[in-house]
Amino acid sequence: MDLTAPSERDEGAEVTTTPSKAVPRPTPETQPFWDGCAAGELRLQRCSSCDAHYFPPRPFCPTCLSDQVTWETASGRGTLHTYVINHRAAPGFEAPYAIAVVQLDEGPRMMSNIVGIENTPENLELDMALEVTFEPRGDMMLPVFQPASTGGGQ
Amino acid sequence: MSIRGRIAIIGAAETTELGRIPHLSAIGLHADAARNAIADAGIAKSDIDGIACAGQSPVAVAQYLGITPSYVDGTSVGGCSFMLHVRHAAAAIDAGMCEMVLVTHGESGKSRVGMAGFGGGGDGSLQGQFEVPYGPTGPPTMFPIGVLRYMKELGLTHEQLASVAVVQREWAAQNPRAMMRDLVTVDDVLSSRMVAYPMHLLECCLVTDGGGAVIVTSAERARAMDLPNPPVYLMGTGESSETPMVSQMEDFTTSKAFRVAGAKAFAEAGISHADVDHLMIYDAFAHLPIYGLEDLGFVGRGEAGAFIAEGNTKPGGSLPLNTNGGGLSYTHTGMYGMFAIQESVRQVRGTAAAQVPNVKISIAHGVGGMFAASGTLVLTNQEL
Ligand SMILES: [Zn+2]
Fold first, then answer.
1. What residue stretches are annotated with the ChsH2 rubredoxin-like zinc ribbon domain (chain A) (predicted)?
2. pLDDT tens-digit profile of A130-153?
3. A134 touches chain B (CB under 8 A)
4. B7-114+206-380 — its CATH code?
């Protein structure tokens, strides 16, 4: 544990700075992921020898260290693996909101937000089906997830 | 080859004050704890030839104290860094690289006086790209992210989780230095403010100022010294790391770093769980002792919540746990691991505020980051 950042019990540490949400800054290794988001696609890397997807992006497979890896467009489908509901808003956010971990159908998991549904413990059932959507963030597009559309089989 | 029984902690002390210490900067807290530990060991500063710390640079702390070290360790993996410092110092001393290492901690967590900025990587780091944009506001909104998964898979209840805070407050009530000493009930915990569902305020650690230091040397040298306090011997040690991104944990119901570090320490110590008289598990949040009890092997998977709720870890219980009151009730500066070590040392010395009878073996188990890293120390008052 390392709580060098002021924590919840540190009264008076309310965030009152610029009301804009944090914007990710791509690196050369992650740029294709963010290019995919801008194009409305969730892209994941897959190792040719392991035949497995992985995340977050890096130019080699974290299992076998091979650099024979390719970028692929993921299904964008997943399930709600776990989450917290944050009651202390980050800049630009309106609390309470869920910070979730999504289990992607391809195998990797990623942190995300859940949109299109009020973020309550009753609404957010673990393992519920989700699908990706993208929301503008600065000049980037950020992958977030919404409840999967019923009968969506496309 | 092992350091089992070959290394001793001969000095251990916390800062003179704990809680709110606005008149001391972070490095000043390191120095206050260091001076107290040097006095506790009854040594001269010139006996120290090694320095280790986190938060502040070991270079800065050595210069501040007027020490010219021949061993420098700045391992900084969060709150368990001090367990790793002791482990590394043990190896270095055993290898003859140095003879006596001072490990220090000091943090102005509450007052924020002279605190070094924490890197964290910025918006181009992997955390900056793939976690921060989703709105976490500090550890309370990130560290417990696996708790709901644990609840679903292993049946932990909200009441059992709350009981962690209730039991630790019972220990804190016996400790005059603990910040929170009034007894609380499960209802009190569950009706305290929601911080990040499912975690309530009383399931989150305190934010305080303070520090601590230990002095490590060889058991051989400890035996040759005329020490004012009995030496505490190192029986076993372990360390590991998993991921700086909590969202990338392999399994949200168990810490790989805990399992690796714990198993290593048990194996080196050559003990079974029944041999352990006293246990410290770094409790930044109420779920940490639950994960720790299971990942260190004290109980089976999914059993820790009931184990705590049924009173096994409370005063008079079979496995006294977090007997200073823990990060939830005693103190939590930011990197609490040093305080877990201090309480283990006090318990095996027999000098704790809430002393457990006849402690021969104590374990201090720490976490770094949010299940990012881990360190385990097995301590004993027995010569091996
Ligand atoms: Zn591979």
1. 34-69
2. 999 999 999 999 999 999 986 544
3. no
4. 3.40.47.10
